[in-house]
Amino acid sequence: MQEKEIVISRAEISGRIKELAKEISSDYRNCNLIVVGVLKGAFVFLADLLREIDIPLEVDFVRLASYGADTVSSGEVRLSNDIELEIVGKDVLIVEDIVDTGLSLVFLRKLFAGRNAKSIRICTLIDKKERRQVELEIDYTGFEIENGFLVGYGLDFAEQHRHLPDVYRLKNQT
Ligand code: IMP
Ligand code: MG
Question: Quick one: pLDDT band at residue 68, thresholds 50, 70, 90?
């Protein structure tokens, strides 16, 4: 068993999600909102966030690959599953579990921009800002966490821990 300590509790997450959803609902009123979740990590956050948003929206998913069964990014991002919906003229909100180097989201933003979305914004549950390698504007951030490798609430380490209701930091990992 890998040792871990709790860093964000389920109560903190649910409180923050209500605030983010309120902001998003107000910012996107009278827009053509399409929420795109980044699999697999964002599925838990997305499910809770969407149920607090009170305006019409569409949902789709992409799957990106950049990490293997390791805690260090390979630095290479590729699309392993694309969205099915059209985004031309739509207001795209990308929902991520955690932003680390920023490479994944720079890649995705560029991809959607090339398809003539009307607007593209980013919402992430967690921002590990200090580890950023590329410039990236994030529009909605749940929590900023300085360091460590985090698991739970959708986040995994080698596919484990995604089902945990709180967010933990693994001990002895960078
Ligand atoms: P980036 O391209 O380096 O920003 O990588 C972001 C992706 O790496 C996230 O969507 C996660 O899938 C994964 N990742 C980065 N840091 C962590 C972490 O602390 N725990 C779990 N996954 C992470
Ligand atoms: Mg992810």
Answer: low
